[in-house]
Amino acid sequence: MLFKQQVWLRQKLLVLGSLAVGSLLYLVARVGSLDRLQPICPIEGRLGGARGPAEFPLRALQFKRGLLHEFRKNNASKEQVRLHDLVQQLPKAIIIGVRKGGTRALLEMLNLHPAVVKASQEIHFFDNDENYAKGIEWYRKKMPFSYPQQITIEKSPAYFITEEVPERIYKMNSSIKLLIIVREPTTRAISDYTQVLEGKERKNKTYYKFEKLAIDPNTCEVNTKYKAVRTSIYTKHLERWLKYFPIEQFHIVDGDRLIMEPLPELQLVEKFLNLPPRISQYNLYFNATRGFYCLRFNIIFNKCLAGSKGRIHPEVDPSVITKLRKFFHPFNQKFYQITGRTLNWP
After folding, report:
1. Which residues are known binding-site members for 3'-phosphoadenylyl sulfate?
2. For a FRET experiment, which of 2, 24, 87, 169 has its CA 20 to 30 Å from that of 196?
3. Among candidates 184, 293, 189, 282, which has minimal Cα distance to 231?
4. Is the confidence at residue 232, as pLDDT, over 70?
5. Among this protein's residues, is 100 annotated catalytic?
6. Tens digits of per-residue pLDDT, 43-67?
7. Higher local confidence (pLDDT), 15 or 156
8. pLDDT above 90: residue 120
9. Which first-to-last residue range defines the signal peptide (predicted)?
10. What's the number of domains the chain is made of?
11. Residue 266 domain flag
12. What was the pLDDT predicted at 51?
């Protein structure tokens, strides 16, 4: 009797083992067929840059991003850097502006793509003489660790309006991709003022009203010496950049649309950067409490921008807004003509 039970148990174990092996072989074949059905071009090759020693599909990069996050959080050791083939790469794309146009939102949203790694802080290498004097290796070491197949992106909105920056970036990489995110110029100027005003109030300092800064009291015309106004004359700054880079190396992002409907804008940027399309509506969800879109990296990790984003603007005299929009209009028209992108600005 005991012998029969042992035989029966052996037969059962053999059947279960066969099922387990069969299931495993099915899964291996299934994953292999999925990879064959979804070929993905090497990221570096599509960007036209140097090839890395190994080529990862996006699925592998997505997994490896989790490792990068852990390394950044805990400071990767030299051994980890060597074992995982990590590098600190110079950026292949830079968000050069515009201040209060949505540069932080754009950077964080692009970071949803598994082939993109962001520099978390504004480096201010090209617009700061002291930093620039430290040399290109200092700049590279400020970049995050990444895999060779990923691209690094940094953002420093002061680059757009600083005179020396275009030539300095050109000397580093004449074929670099440049992103400019813009908003309706008057709205951007008021947003710029609002940020400065908040900083003054935190220090218990008084500050002029926007109207007094934006309009010259002597002439009653728009005050072009006021930095917030000057920054919004986009075409003046862009013309300086065009002395060094062809217009094909720039991509204009509509910052007003990015707030309201981010996905189409992000898809245009993916195309400009020659990235396989990966960011989807799943990655973006509207947070009614905050009043803007937040980011979903996976089922576990979500992220919203800092609470300082989306400040409430002070009320501004409607006649001043009208005067500013009339002033900016011809500059806007020229900006549309140069960039080939018409935006819905009044």
Report:
1. 100-104, 183, 191, 293, 309-313
2. 169
3. 189
4. yes
5. yes
6. 333 344 433 333 445 656 655 555 5
7. 156
8. no
9. none
10. 1
11. yes
12. 39
Residue type at 77 in one-letter notation: S
**What tens digit of pLDDT does each residue of 142-176 get?**
999 988 989 999 999 999 999 999 999 999 999 99
- The Cβ of residue 19 has, within 10 Å, a number of other Cβ atoms equal to 10
Which residue segment(s) compose the domain that 73 sits in?
65-184+232-311
Task: Give the CATH number of the domain where residue 137 resides.
Answer: 3.40.50.300
In angstroms, how far is CA 269 from the centroid of its own chain?
A: 9
Residues 123-134, mean pLDDT to the nearest whole number? 98
**What's the pLDDT band for 300 if we cut at 50, 70, 90?**
confident
Query: Is the pLDDT assigned to residue 39 strictly greater than 90?
Result: no
Radius of gyration, CA atoms only, the chain: 26
Cα torsion angle, 95, 99, 102, 104, sign? positive
- DSSP for 76-127 reads --HHHHHHTT-EEPPPSEEEEE-TTSSHHHHHHHHTTSTTEEE-SS----SS
What are the tokens at 299? 């089922």
- Binding-site residues, please? 100-104, 183, 191, 293, 309-313
Here the tokens at position 143 are: 């970049």
User: Taking the CA of residue 168 as centre, how many other CA atoms within 13 Å lie in the half-sphere pointing to its CB?
Assistant: 20
What pLDDT, on the 0 to 100 scale, is given for residue 186? 98
| Cβ contacts of 81 within 8 Å, gap of 6 or more | 145
Question: Which of 231, 63, 217, 84 is closest to 145 using CA atoms?
Answer: 84
| Separation of alpha carbons 230 and 182, rounded Å | 14
- Within-domain flag for 289: yes
Give domain status of residue 210, yes or no.
no
